[in-house]
Amino acid sequence: MATQVRDVKTTTTTTTTTVGKGGQVTTHVDRQVSNGGNPFSDRDVVHTHAPAFFRCLEAPSTYHRVTVDAYDKYFEPAIFEHGPFNPEEDAKAIRKALKEKGTDEKSIINILTRRSNRQRQIIAYEYQKIHGRDLAKDLKSDLSGTLEDVLLGLLSPPEVFDARTLNKAVAGLGTDEQTLIEVIGSRSAEELAAIKKAYRAEFKNELEKDIAGDTSGFFRQLLLARIHSAEKVAQQGRSYEIYPKRAFHEAQALWETGPKKWQNNESFFIPIFTERSDEHLRQVFEDYKAIGRIDIEKDIEKELSGDAKDLLLAFVRVSKNRPAYFANRLHQHLDGKTCTRIIVSRSEKDLGSIRKEYARLYGKSLDTAISEGFKGDAKQVLLGVLTSRSASI
């Protein structure tokens, strides 16, 4: 069975490869249109069972493999190691603040938002050692709302925080699909592998099993493929290499088939989104735009709907600009739950860069948005994390 090739409008016959800042390779391909609009073949039809990747199509003449700078090399966190660091003094100060009449929330915020996660683990250990009490339990009994959520999140190791977030998204009645999309769609393979282990330890069950029971269709296939591939990709070690010819062929196969039909050949198309590095995916999407004269985001938005569309868009947007993705999430959902999840989880990774992207995209600072959207202790603890780098006790 054969179908008409997706139409594309091109007018020139040139192939250019440029190497930009940091070694990023961008390939632009233009071909003269002939025979139905397919710039890569003289045939009017393609067979639906044979994606373009498997056919002998002309590829751009370029390097077989190119090594580039790490995608997140220049991302800025908001929280760094604090020095000088005295965990015993911190543990005693927190206990004193909790014993104060009415609780001294400001002192607790000042300490915990200005220490790294590693340092907070040491403080919790010293608190138990000195006072014979569990710091997390004491905070939970004395605090509430966003303040409690942020501080308990800061006390948790990152992989445990994410594991608990995912469990809440699938536990009980209803499923929080947007949280699943945000977490699974934005974490690296190494992070997802750690989250899987933490989930197993915390909830005595497999993350894949719980997600499979609460999702369905192409959306479930994408989620599970991303989780399944995490350990394998993590064991291989992070790659900072782009394979331009592979990227070109993958881009052509994606474009020629079209988003609506990606799920019809999931064994080929799903790994492109779930197993490739961010660096490689950016090249795929550049080539997709060159081939089809349309950004892959617009094509996905035009042809797909529902949770599968949102997850694929997350994969694309995260690979292009992770801080901008989170800035957009905060702009769209400036509520306690979303702010806590993003600000806590990104605090030592790229929260500083997220602040910059927010200001660039929306014309005002994230600090101002938080100040306008929250009040009291919730505002203070969120701003405490955002401004930790420039603050001092």
What is the secondary structure topology, with strand pairs?
Elements (H helix, E strand, L loop, with lengths): L1 E3 L9 E6 L5 E6 L14 E3 L18 E2 L19 H13 L5 H8 L4 H15 L3 H8 L2 H11 L2 H13 L6 H10 L2 H15 L3 H8 L2 H20 L4 E2 L1 H14 L8 H10 L2 H15 L3 H8 L2 H27 L3 H11 L4 H12 L3 H8 L2 H11 L7
Antiparallel strand pairs: 1-4, 2-3, 5-6
Helix pairs in contact: 1-2, 1-3, 2-19, 4-5, 5-16, 5-19, 6-7, 6-8, 6-9, 7-15, 8-10, 9-10, 10-12, 10-15, 11-13, 13-15, 14-15, 15-17, 16-19, 18-19
Task: Describe this protein's structure.
The protein has 393 residues and is mainly α. It contains 19 helices and six strands. The chain has helices at 87-99, 105-112, 117-131, 135-142, 145-155, 158-170, 177-186, 189-203, 207-214, 217-236, 244-257, 266-275, 278-292, 296-303, 306-332, 336-346, 351-362, 366-373, 376-386; strands spanning 2-4, 14-19, 25-30, 45-47, 66-67, 241-242. The strands form three sheets. Strands 1-4 form a two-stranded antiparallel ribbon. The protein has a two-stranded antiparallel ribbon with strand order 2-3. A hairpin with a 5-residue loop joins strand 2 (14-19) and strand 3 (25-30). Helix 15 packs across helix 17 (351-362). The longest helix has 27 residues, at 306-332. The protein is elongated, with a radius of gyration of 24 Å. Residues 8-17 and 21-63 have low confidence and may be disordered.
